Amino acid sequence: MTAAASDGWNDEVDARADADLDAWGDADLDGGELDAGAVVSALTVEVPLTPVPAAQVVDGAPSTGSVDLDEDMGLGVWEMTPGTMRDTEVSEVFVVVAGSATVDFVSPALPSIELSPGAIVRLEAGMQTVWTVRETLRKVYLA
User: Fold this and answer.
1) Which of 29, 80, 91, 130 is the most core-located residue (most Cβ within 10 A)?
2) Collapsing DSSP states into helix, strand and coil, what is residue 44?
3) For the domain that residue 102 is a member of, what is the CATH number?
4) Which H/E stretch holds residue 129?
């Protein structure tokens, strides 16, 4: 028997793994830095939203917002409500954690992609896109 097993470590790990995401307490993000060992739920962290500027709106009345989880790493959570908007991308990799959407690539012209939870996407700075969100989309990004 290992020391980890004898001190209850495995039981504690199993209990954490079984915990519902909604029960996670979001870490204090003061200063825009996620502390080592801290937990933030990408599904429940508060993301302040603002209406998309009219010049970017294609359809509907979408709002977007983001919260920096760690400014030094370029890590954050972004959200968009239903509607369609144009955007010019920054270089990033993201993972969709909630919602559904289609991204059309205007420049460079690439095939459209469908987004749903679990999708991992890489974008390059300057790409021209059109986002059509059907169900509020939330992603965790690294830019």
Assistant:
1) 80
2) coil
3) 2.60.120.10
4) strand 128-142
DSSP assignment of 48-78: --EEPPTTTEEES--EEEEEEEETTTTEEEE
pLDDT for 2: 39
Most distant CA atoms of the chain, gap in Å: 64
Residue identified by tokens 């830095």 is 33
60 vs 32, higher pLDDT:
60
Higher pLDDT, 111 or 28: 111
Average pLDDT, the chain: 85
Q: How many domains does the chain have?
A: 1
Contacts of 90 (CB under 8 A, 6+ apart): 123, 125, 143
Single pTM value for the model: 0.79
Is the sign of the CA dihedral 121, 133, 105, 142 positive or negative?
Answer: negative
Structural domain including 33 reads 5-142
Quote the pLDDT of residue 34: 84
